[in-house]
Amino acid sequence: MSRRTVLVVDDDHGIADGVRLRLRSAGYETLVASDGMDGIAAAIEHQPDVVLMDVRMPNMDGLAALETLRIDGQTRHIPVIMLSASLRDQETALEAGAQFFLTKPYRSHDLLAAIECALDNDRQLRETAK
What is the pTM of this model? Predict the structure, then answer.
């Protein structure tokens, strides 16, 4: 089985680089985008297995990008995990179609567990659809 690809969308380059390194050490391929617009473009072009996306970003925030991903037929199937320092964003993110929501700062273990769970859920949905 090929390595799974995770798209990290975060305007904080330090956080994005840290997550990218952690995911690579856990065996994932990674892509990085710095705002919602770039994240949408990368999701369409690369079709990652999971998207990790910050809520608060310039140009297009994560919630608007999530809504766009859910509407687009090319990306609506991709599981999205939203990240935010504000717990107030949780309900909005989940209602908009995020599979999981993690508050910053998050533990590496929780991030990896959310990714694995999102991948398992996606795999089960695809098998059920067959």
Answer: 0.92
